[in-house]
Amino acid sequence: MSIGGATYDLFVRVNHEVVQTHEGNQAFTLPLGEKVRVQEVVETCGGGASNTAVGLARLGCAASFEGVISSDQWGEKLLANFRKEGVDTQDVTVVEGEVSSFSIILSASGGERVILYEPGTNAHLHKANFDRETALHTDWIYLNHIQEGSSMIQDDIVEILAGDPSPNFTWNPGGYQVDAGIESPVNLRLLKATDFLLLNREEALRFARADSVEKAMNTLRQSGVKAIVITDGKNGAIGTDGTHRYRCPVAALGPIVDTTGAGDAFGTGMTWALLTGKDFPTALKAGTINAASVAGAIGAEKGLLTETQMKELLDRTDLAIEVTPL
């Protein structure tokens, strides 16, 4: 069960010339009053829980989506996409008179992007429409970024994970959870029940109140989480399974077209590997390969791999993973 948001994305591809660097910071420069011709416009489905649900379905899992969409045109397209991809939609809440989450993504040829978004119905996931009963009987829960207004469902998730038996749990904290930090009582309870925690470098430093990835990793390990991965863009990923530390480079599958959804693809690939009994280094490799595939296409879901593709790439992709004991 993937819990979180679904978003309809409108990608606007622009020339690399509009990307400017000032004092070390890159930005899109769009002069006011001018017309800027774009290379192409692409409509796709996205959003954290949508990406992970579709990704897990493609990898052969019985995947479901738990979230809220509207009955508007964007919601209809999101629902149609779930059905096309084989994602179970019994836990989708459809509301009237609202706007589904929608994003306009400015994307340049080097993978640079700026996302303009309206959270819409993603903010309406509450205890009242959270399907606790289905969550109780699922094998693995994947909690994606959720809006602050949806935070009350975390109490239900903590109770579900405390059961015997209980689902396994992947957690990719959202912005307000990251800002609350590791000292937040609900965050601490979730961490103790987490089988796989995924953060990018910036999120990890903020979440753990640390000034280095190594310190963040050590702090997060002490919280009781079983496995951790911190991604760092072109520098690859660092992870631990509690006994060893692993460094994995990026997978060179082809040119980077767009990095939207790469983090979700990483988490999807790694969760699939752990769910199917693969060891931690293989899971780390699966996440890396899935992320690289998504970064090679426009949109968060187009490049998501099927199970057959993943197995083939795992066999023929050579990644020099460094392993050191803790």
Give structural notes.
By secondary structure, this protein is an alpha/beta fold. The chain has 11 helices and 16 strands. The strands form 3 sheets. It has a 10-stranded mixed sheet, sandwiched between helices. A 4-stranded mixed sheet has the order 5-2-8-9. Strand 6, helix 2 and strand 7 form a beta-alpha-beta unit. The protein is globular and about 60 Å long. The model has no long low-confidence stretch (mean pLDDT 94).
**What fraction, in percent, of the residue positions are helical?**
25-40%
Order of helices and strands: EEEEEHEHEEEHEHEHHEHHEEEHHHE
Average pLDDT taken over every residue:
94
Oligomeric state? single chain
* Distance, first to last CA: 32 Å
Structural class: alpha/beta
Q: Please tell me what the overall shape is.
A: globular
Total strands: the figure is: 16
CATH superfamily: Ribokinase
